[in-house]
Amino acid sequence: MQLTLPLIPGSAVPAIAHLIGSLTWLSSPRARAAVRENQLVAAPGRRPEVRRTFVNQVRNYLDTFRLFSASREEVAQWVGAEGWEHFLAAHARGKGVVMASAHFGPMNVCGQLFLVRGYPTTMPVEEERSEFGRAVNRARSALGGTFIPTSSARGIYRVLRDGGVLGVIADRAVTGTGERVEFFGHHVLLPSAHIALALRADASVVPAFAYRHGHKVSLHFEPALNLARTGDHEADVRLGMREFTRVMERHIAGTPEEWAVFDRFFPVASVGQSPPSPKPFPLRWLRLLRSKGPKRLG
Predict the structure, then answer these.
(1) What dotted CATH number matches 5-289?
(2) How far apart are CA 248 and CA 261, in angstroms?
(3) What is the DSSP letter of 212?
(4) What is the C-alpha to C-alpha distance for residues 41 and 11, in angstroms, rounded to an integer?
(5) Predicted confidence (pLDDT) per residue in 131-187, tens digit
(6) DSSP secondary-structure letter at 295?
(7) Any residues with CB less than 8 A from the CB of 67 and at least 6 apart, and which?
(8) What share of the chain is helix, strand, coil (3-state, %, to 5)?
């Protein structure tokens, strides 16, 4: 996979993504129903575009694997930025920046923006048990990005203490811990470590969301959150979570088909929700592209 997928021409990616995404959509009734329910909650006034979500996610994966063969110059032309000044203002404080986003849009590719503009980035990640997941992470780090285990709280804090940039995906509480907040009218468990760490390190939290514009992509930066620092840490975390959640709601509601969550996110009853499963629905149809190459990667 690592040897074959990067060879796909960029011009062919949309058609291949449409084919594989449509096949996955057809063969995945449970995930299909979950995506539909999520979109109805996030954007009740819009007709769900469920198949588009599957197609978008396949395209995101195919574009991620293109990072193996892309140069920094090519990525710089591929990835644009809106609101870059918000990141620069936060970084100028010298106290570290948490870039907070969601499973939304072509984030793996857009996240390379920092590297090609000279800002090393560290990303906390869970241990990957599948070859596909490990290959995705290798592609994400192909241009020099650094990973750190989510279990290394001290190491993550050190990144911020040293004025570094930390990239986090903050829409799924995969560890089962976080803060229960109102999200699209439901009380759900969302990860809160990015807010708690930023408060302890006096770092900035800058929300950023990835969008696709034809064959190009861009990262949309929001102003840094106005985190309260009253001395009551738990209350300050709750306030910060509410502010971040409102920003995340706005982006997801605007283009819900870009929200790549393939499990039912919202419970029937708001109380007692179990966290979503750790990974999005496996896009097994990508295996169709593995006609050649070794079985093991690396």
Answers:
(1) 3.40.1130
(2) 14
(3) E
(4) 34
(5) 888 899 999 999 999 999 988 889 999 999 999 999 999 999 888 889 999 999 999
(6) S
(7) 6, 75, 108, 109, 112, 139, 140, 142, 143
(8) 45, 15, 40
